[in-house]
Amino acid sequence: MAFSRRGFLGAAAGAAAGTAFGLSRGRAMSRLIADLDFAVYPPGGPETFALSVCRECPGGCGTRVRCIGGRPVKLDGNPLHPVNAGRLCPKGQAALQALYHPDRILRPLRREGRRGDPDSFRPADWDEALAEIGVRLGLLRKQGRPEALGLLRGPDAGLDEALAGRFLAAFGSPNDLVQHGGSEAPALAAQASQGIRRAPVPDLGEADLVLSFAGDFLDCPDSPVLMTRAFGRFRRGRGGRRGRFIYAGSRESLTASAADEWVPIRPGSEGLLALGIASVIVAEGLYDRAFAIRHLAGFEDGPDGSPGLRRLLLTDFGLDRVSAATGVPVNWILRIAREFAAARPGLALGPRSGQQLAASLLGHLGAAVLNGLCGSIDVAGGVLTAGPGPLPAWPDLPDDPVAAAGRGRARLDRAAAGELAAADPGALAAAILAEEPYRLEALFVLGCDPAWVGPAPEAFAAAMAKVPLVVAFASLPDRTALLADWILPLPHALETWACHFGPADAAFPVVSLARPVLTEPLGDVRPAGEVFLELARRLGGPVAEALPWPGMPELIRDQIGRLFAARRGAIIGTAFDEAWVRLMERAGWWAPGYRSEEELWNRMLETGGWWDPFYDHQDWQRVLRTESGRFELRPDLIAELDRQAALRGAGRVEGEGAAGDGSLAVHLFEPLALAGGRGAHLPFLQEILDPDHQEKWETWAEIHPETAAELDIRDGEPVEVRSGQGSVLARARLTERVVPGLVALPVGQGVPHGNHWTPAADGNPCALLAPAREALTGLPDAAATRAGMVGRERRRMRQEA
Amino acid sequence: MDPDTTMVDPDEVLLRPMQRTGWKFWLFSAVMLAIWAFGMYEWTVQLRSGLQVTGLNVPVYWGLYITNFVFFIGISHAGTLISAILRLCKAEWRRPITRAAEVITVLVLFFGAGCVILDLGRPERALNVILYANGHSPLVWDVCSITVYLTGSLIYLYLPLIPDAAILRDRMPQRRWFYRIVALGYRGTPRQKKILETAISVMAVVVIPIAVSVHTVVSWVFAMTVQPMWHSTIFGPYFVVGAIFSGIAGILIAMAIVRKVYHLENYLKPVHFNNLGLLLLVMTLLWFYFTFAEYLTTYYGSEPDHMRIFTAKIHGQYAPLFWSMVLCCLVIPFCLLVTKRTRSSVWGCVTASVAVEIGMWLERYLIVVPSLSNPRLPRADVSYAPTLVEWSLLASFVAAFIFLYGLFTKVFPIVSIWEVKEGREKALSEVEERIREALPGITPDAPAVGPAERQRRDQRDAQPVLTPAS
Amino acid sequence: MTRWGMVIDLDRCTACQACVVACRVENNAPPSGPEFAHQGRDISWIRLGSIKHEEAGNRPGLSLAPLPCMHCENPPCVHVCPTHATTIDEEGMVAQVPARCIGCRYCTTACPYTVRQFNWRLGQWPAPLDQGRNPDVSIRPRGVVEKCTFCAHRLQRARDRARYEGRELEPDEYVPACVESCPAEAMFFGDLDDPHSEVARQAASPRAFRLMEELGTRPKVIYLSKGE
Does the CB of C10 have a partner CB in chain A at under 8 Å? Predict the structure, then answer.
């Protein structure tokens, strides 16, 4: 009888003991209560709004910051800003996470231990940092080797970056290098056809038909908001006129999935397809004859008997060849050609898969040929050419023989080595390693991460080891910063004065101006501009003379004075203001809303900036700067590039020059959230990497199910993608959004040394890229990279067996 | 204890579990309580960290806990419903098994309701269901019907317990105070007997619609949503059939164990297994009929959202579970129960019943999880794998149930003493009376069966019971 | 009577997910981290989902569409909630009361759009990330369901402001964070019952459709299909 009572007691005791043991661990009870509490509101305070500029990408959108008790809590677009008109992209929305990031670098850091060891940094103060860097730079000047200083900067166009360039010029170095791979090939194509080395601006919003040859203008443009807004207008913003969009490429990117039609093509055959379409247009006489007669050059055979584009297209780019090489059926090519020629205007876009990843020249020349043949040059809805903005405007450099001699030396990257030589961080790395033509003694890196995102990350990392003084500006620890000797912490956009010049995607010049929203930065940080001004002061002499401003606010004020003196444009405003300014300027009037420098300054701070909406279409003297004054179709160049590509292809078939131990073509792309490689630290961006697969926080490898079946790879399986250069661990994704025989990997993913949320990345897709370059341009030869893919788990099992 | 009574009472064996307890029971208790305590510890883990310790995710918001809830509530149909139906049908063979069945109902209902508490993100707010009840919500219907069912089942378990408690009060020196309270002063006077019998028959009638409603309402939790393969009119009866199916299997298992452990071979005889086995066979076929109807309708409807779930079950991710379910719910029980030889043997019935329980659990799982993991808007990478916490809580509930069941057998006779006695004393003549009333050509003088035949049958059916324990 | 609704033009939408991030910042959705995100437990009141192409009018394959709460006029979640923790108000907004929710997740399973979210754990904001949280939106405790509110706190603020200034609420004073951010200008928000509102005009487009109209939930989020 007693047993059952005991049984009861035992049961109760057991349960109670279990419960008690469970709850007694740690501060469990109090945490439990905290977890279960409800109606917790973050601390409130007075609500204020301030204007600022987003610096998460080169776009430079105007932002409106909602602050509670002085703390920024939400960013939205500045409705008056011409780039974003009140809108923001996901990167801009996530920018507060960069401000409040737990891993932010809040003090200057000095490397003490081994290079590349993330634990080897010791906090330092600014005086120490600037003193040491100043002394080292002073020594270079004293030795008469100012060219031994280099600056590598990203595509951002702010006053800080411009000032860094000015510092280099004043110091006497030609090595003011910009890493902006995405714009290299289009800029070279524009150089060849228009004589202007600047990527042309597609007037997407006004186009009738857009034909993109793997141009991912919605994934990784310089300004996502500008392009996305233009796309919205292209589709539905013009009354009943809906733009049609055809995308040809090997991967169905975000851009491609927004298209009406995705034409899958063999990897790397974009240029060929464009020329095949051009060939149909020529053969069927569908091109714009009037434009061809007036503005095209190189269409007909030359007087010396050199073949013109017409002959070249008809002989070398016939339908059979193009169809076989691209995998696009002949009738598709015919249909697309007719559709494109019928559109007024049709807009052809060359390949672009990232801000940092370079594309081939042939694709862009093909797109330029199509635009030229159909007269889509410098018309609304065609290809525009941005004119120079009024800023930055600098006073002349003081007379300085040391600097002049230094500036006269050759640049370390190949850019400017020839008409069509591309700036290449790979070449830069090679030059540093070879110490040819001279040794690089000091390097500043600002706004890019060449040791992680770029065409040659490993080569660059190796090159950094050769440079005695590497100074990286960073606000979050990226790989380049961790390989540097000094990390100088940058303020967040909300903590500093902003003076930003419009994105490369815009045909109009913009100057965004904003004062700091947070007057007390969260850490001991300084804008890059202040650092260069201080270094100039410490160097003294002509360098200090060239940079005489006591601080960035004074410099910005000075620049706005120069803007006033330029006597053009207007304060940013509503659509009505914009129409008014356009109308006035077209009639030759300049009717600014300000009468004095002071007023310009105040109004710019009130509204967020200044711009010049006026674009003078078909100003041929401005946009066609070739010797002939015409739009050059460059059949010579096309034939040469085609010949070289054929040669390289043949070489690969024979096994020479083929890189990698696999047979898969490699396509790297920059997803919107990571384009340019800056988003990897922000959780909200990591959690929207890919809308289709819902990829989060990791690198994935897209592969066609057929190819996967051949390789015995299953969906979701951890795989290793290995090329001759390196390998990366990823998760396999079987998808019909890539063509067979291709592996597509996102760039910018993976935080090299981990962060608060995630451990270190398992390799870098950029490291897969083969070092092969196009002989003519020095652009990376994308087709040279070949890779294999193996399942990790099963390989391990096989090895064990 | 009075040695004389022991000598005369044939049902002494029924009292033995209450009088003596061996080390085996202690070992059994220790093991069961250990499993229970482990589960409770895991529950504290869940309380501390929240439902993130489960394998649940988006969109598989419901998993093992809800599966167990439906499963336990299903088993609860074992007792009350079956015993009530048998009582109303005056199936005399029911007498030794009703209590064993009713206890299952009452105990398992607690665990069924407990599963819902486990599943709540905020268990401490469970009372909101009553405070802020939304009459539209099938969950509120559930709370009502389960509460009513639990109350009804408790009463229905308790009423027939009163005379036995009185016997125990009179016969057992230990715990007399307890039995005195339970027996409510029952002396077996004709008036008391009459009231008791009336109450029992009223409850037997009342409890049947409640029981049917309970599992219907449980099914409506699913069927009242618009989710594919949940939104089905057949769900109410389908769930009830499944519930009775698993319930009968539950009784059979419990009977076999009790019979073995307490040596009740004289009470729980092959005829009981045979009869319940027959019932189980009928339910097997009914279950198959409903399942077949449900899946065939889906297949012919071919709506894409439904078909994704359908194919996931038939030859997709859930195919191994699905076909195991068919094996356990149809093939094994059917083969074992269709022949009398295996049906009337204890092992045959028990094997079939264990298969049915596994199969029915799988059926519940396959109703809850595949529909959720294939929502109308497809999502990539949906998978649900229950974690240790979920499994251990299932084990803990099962262990606690078994322990409490064992405990009950130690406090009250698991075979109703007075009903068996009554059956021996009165049933025979009652049955005779019933037959006489129902069939023509039988006069009071001419019995339905010849005296010789009658004696032979009496000996076969009742002899062991009637033979005094020597 | 005001009847708040949203129009999403899939022809403009580029699936950039600005709406997703804007919503998470505005509504204090905690960052998840890799493990939690891979478990499919990250909280996002609006997400991108694949909808059937016949609905979107896209070329073969699945089409991506932002999926906020549809704020159905016949909301399945409201019917099944046992505790009235989710309700629909007279202006058609389906709201969630976290303080009353028992976390049974019946609403999440009943919602055919799977847009309701459950707090599997308490949100974690490693310092100083917590500085950026919006004081207008409460931090949801663990174990309760939450969902898109059409940024009802913004409506509350706008109403308060209008009342303070002694005037009526202007139609453009209140938009949810997702609509405000959308770079493609693909989202419209306003009063569906006001025939002059942009959202009502868009909703009358021949391209307009509602997700899973056949279920009879009568969503107030209206999509405009791709194509002509």
Answer: no
